[in-house]
Design brief:
Chain lengths: 295, 282, 277
């Protein structure tokens, strides 16, 4: 790793308390996003993948650990400074319906981000909004319409345009295609790839879907119970999975040319990891979390 | 697909309760507005007829102990009652709404403190708060209106907070926060348009409770003072004649009842229309 | 293959709208025998869920249905409300996408699973409980008694779906209609539930109508498949034939747009290649 990573988290922990229970969403996560890469975070519900994404954009604050953006540690900064530093981190949400304000024309919703950035001439804002709509493959005159006039895929394009308005360096996409029809999913993934090619963008792509991650991401981190259990290039993870959980996950993905027989496969006992467990490198930056107790 | 079909079916005809509520409200409001042209006698003129006359063609609602025409008094009294109600609701809604929005959008500490405070106040019946305030401020129409307005503040603060907090959790608000839109603008541009409908509905519901409080205060002699013909005040003055001339109590009482009923009907059905979660449950 | 248990002939469902009549289902016919899994696959709005709702007589009131639906040799398309209640459960079990919404949060699993049989079929509570226990074992729950004493919120998503499937088995229906049964579940849990469906087919001889948007699920789970779009069945046949040698352009498009891990890797590779040039 030669250049400074764009975003780096170190020993990140997050716990939520609800009804006297404490839920540990993140149990010490360390990760770096390099300039210009697409980093996939894959895991199932409760793995902590969304919490990690929300911390990366500043929607949640970590309970412990460090958050560095462009080489600067920002979790110790004052909220005001931190917010300023995180301005270049934007997010695309899963649900294309609730992520748009139903009572505001979509152009205005995109424009509000530009206004907040200090642009006060609405004619200039409208022009930029039209350009943004153009970039995400929508007609420029759609700006005047309301969200309900659009399909799910179009709404997600609008949400992407809104995320691009503040000219971000990092875009966290939290399951951006899982609510869409298959035929639309591919279009949105292509759009994200295309946008990255055009500009100075890096993605954190959160998903439960191995196929989607395989298509878009350069590296993948596999999360399980608030920990990263395996991380490496997307081809290494898919073709040479090392951690039992990663293998389970890959094996569960429906595929052609295989028939379910109804016999339940032998359940592999998943290792329970402790804080002391270390990663071992199996080559080319492909790391696997190793249970200390198993050796 | 199915949802659009259902809504178009529902919109085809107005539910009976809404029609009834709206009809009543229109009649009551029109009667109060046009009272100077509709009333047959000067409502303040004593001995417009014989004292304590039973209702007749000439004196539709009868006369009171001073021989004043009750029909004219109830008509013009509507202006006072509705006026107090509207003033109190609008100002209560404004202040309560601001407090609620402030609580929802200004950080954890302020939120907790304000909410506790609102909850404590909200646990008292609003009429009781109004009563205590008037006792402190002194009787009179202005103070009564102020007291009712203040008594409505906790209710509206609570409702607005609830609506705003529900809105606050939605991803589009989070997206707006990520775009660093300032809280004030966030509330104005994103939150307000999404909750005003519901607030108007709650305003309608609060209106009937304000009218009740106003009449209650006047009845106790703390609100509108005699000889001004507020409905509660007429009731209070007539209560000594309940056996001899029950109409003095029946007609203003009926006016209060119908007003409260009509606004509750409108408010309830509007709430069902605005809040889809309550649909079909009523 | 045995005679069809469920037979749908020329089924159409229409809705009157301002713009004219909307055909949610447009003249579809298919059969389902016991011991086989027939998948209805399509995107949202294809009419696949509407089909299952018509079989169960659960269509919205505004809908108009025509055609013939036979279950176990009996025409049910004209049955009244009371009679259809008997068909539901006894002849056809139903499994929905979101198990939480079909379970009552304030009742224990035992109560929910015995309520129907006790009230509608005059079964004693003890017998109903014994059946419930067997059904839970059938769906692979190791400790049925513990689950019976629990409330829905104490169970994981996968467990809830298992309980739902167990509940639908209580009256030993000939077929199960599973409407997107795994869409709300995690991949590893989805895999277990699909294994369970295949297991039920083999062990209890249930016929299963599997409604899904995921052609990958179809490929490894179903015996036959009907591809739906715009309320019509475009192509129907054995899974290997339809997915292996698709005849209809839409089926080809559906297969082409389906993302698989291998395809994803290849496409990404191609993109990187192009970027390098």
């Amino acid at each position: 790793m030669t250049s400074k990573p764009l975003l780096r988290v170190e020993g990140l922990r997050k716990s939520f308390s609800a009804n006297r229970h404490t839920v540990h969403a993140l149990n010490g996560v360390s990760l770096a996003l390099e300039q210009g890469e697409t980093l996939g975070i894959i895991g199932e519900s409760g793995s902590g993948k969304s919490t990690l994404g929300r911390i990366a954009v500043g929607l949640e604050t970590p309970t412990a650990g460090e958050l560095h953006v462009e080489g600067m540690r920002i979790d110790t900064m004052s909220p005001r400074l931190r917010r300023d530093k995180l301005r270049r981190c934007q997010m695309i949400f899963q649900d294309p319906y609730s992520s748009l304000n139903p009572r505001l024309p979509v152009g205005r919703q995109i424009g509000e981000g530009l206004f907040a950035r200090g642009e006060s001439d609405w004619r200039a804002i409208d022009a930029t909004v039209a350009d943004l709509l153009d970039r995400v493959g929508l007609k420029r005159e759609f700006a005047k319409r309301y969200p309900h006039e659009f399909s799910g895929g179009q709404r997600q394009r609008i949400a992407i345009a809104r995320a691009l308005a503040p000219d971000p360096h990092i875009v966290v996409a939290d399951e951006p295609v899982s609510a869409l029809d298959v035929s639309i999913q591919a279009q949105i993934l292509d759009l994200l790839a295309e946008l990255k090619k055009q500009g100075d963008l890096s993605y954190i792509f959160i998903s439960h879907d191995m196929a989607v991650v395989a298509r878009l991401c350069d590296r993948v981190a596999v999360m399980h119970r608030g920990r990263i259990v395996e991380c490496g290039s997307v081809s290494a993870i898919i073709e040479n999975p090392q951690h039992p959980y990663t293998r389970n996950l890959l094996d569960a993905v429906p595929r052609f040319g295989r028939r379910r027989t109804g016999q339940k496969p032998v359940v592999v006992r998943l290792p329970l990891h402790n804080d002391g467990d270390c990663f071992i490198d199996v080559g080319e930056g492909h790391v696997v979390l190793q249970s200390a107790s198993s050796e | 697909m199915t949802s659009t079909i259902q809504t178009s079916v529902q919109r085809r005809h107005l539910p009976f309760s809404v029609a009834l509520g709206l009809g009543l409200a229109i009649v009551i409001i029109m009667a109060s507005l046009l009272s100077p042209y509709l009333m047959p006698f000067d409502p303040m003129r004593m001995a417009a007829g014989p004292r304590l006359t039973a209702p007749s063609m000439k004196y539709l609602f009868g006369t009171d102990e001073f021989g004043r025409d009750l029909f004219s008094r109830v008509l013009i009294g509507g202006r006072l009652s509705l006026g107090i109600g509207i003033t109190a609701v609008v100002s209560g809604l404004l202040v309560g709404g601001l407090v609620g929005l402030f609580a929802a959008f200004s950080g954890r500490t302020i939120e907790t403190v304000l909410l506790r405070l609102i909850d404590v106040l909200y646990s008292f019946p609003d009429t009781l708060i109004a009563l205590a305030l008037v006792a402190f401020l002194g009787p009179g129409i202005g103070n009564a209106t102020l007291a009712i307005a203040i008594s409505l503040v906790p209710f509206y603060a609570r409702v607005t907070y609830g609506l705003a907090a529900a809105e606050r959790a939605k991803p589009y608000i989070e997206a707006a926060r990520l775009a660093r839109i300032r809280s004030g603008r966030l509330v104005r541009v994103h939150v307000m348009p999404n909750i005003t409908q519901s607030l108007i509905v709650m305003g309608t519901l609060g209106f009937s409770s304000a009218i009740l409080s106003a009449s209650g205060l006047s009845f106790l002699g703390l609100g509108v003072q005699p000889p001004s013909p507020e409905w509660g005040a007429i009731l209070a003055a007539g209560r000594n004649y309940i056996t001899k001339a029950p109409w003095i109590l029946i007609f203003p009482g009926l006016a209060i009842c119908l007003t409260v009923l009509s606004f509750n009907l409108i408010g309830d059905s509007l709430r069902d229309i605005v809040d889809p979660r309550r649909k079909g449950r009523s | 293959m045995s005679a069809p248990y469920l037979s749908v002939r020329n089924l159409s469902v229409t809705f009157p709208t301002k713009a004219g009549t909307f055909h949610a289902i447009d003249d579809i016919s298919f059969d389902l025998a016991r011991g086989e899994i027939l998948a209805l696959v399509g995107e949202s709005g294809s009419g696949k869920s509407m089909t299952s709702l018509s079989i169960m007589h659960l269509l919205p009131e505004a809908a108009e249905m025509s055609g013939r639906i036979e279950i176990d040799g009996r025409d049910i398309s004209a049955l009244g409300r009371r009679e259809i209640e008997d068909v539901r459960g006894a002849k056809v079990g139903m499994i929905f996408q979101e198990p939480m919404t079909s379970l009552n949060p304030v009742l224990t699993i035992a109560r929910q699973m015995t309520e129907g049989p006790v009230r509608h079929n005059g079964v004693s509570r003890r017998d109903a409980l014994a059946t419930a226990r067997t059904c839970l074992e059938d769906v692979g729950i190791a400790e049925p008694d513990r689950v019976l004493a629990q409330y829905p919120h104490q169970l994981s998503g996968g467990m809830r779906q298992r309980v739902m499937i167990a509940a639908s088995l209580a009256l030993q229906p000939g077929i199960l209609i599973a409407d997107e049964p795994t869409t709300a579940l995690d991949v590893t849990v989805q895999s277990q539930v699909l294994d369970l469906l295949v297991d039920l087919k083999a062990r209890l001889g249930s016929g299963i109508l599997l409604i899904t948007h995921d052609i990958g699920v179809v490929a490894e789970t179903a015996d036959r498949v009907a591809v739906m779009r715009g309320g019509r069945i475009l192509e129907m046949g054995a899974v290997d034939n339809v997915l292996g040698v698709p005849q209809h352009d839409y089926t080809k498009a559906l297969l082409a747009s389906h993302l698989t891990v291998e395809k994803g890797l290849m496409q990404r590779g191609a993109q990187c290649e192009r970027a390098r040039q």
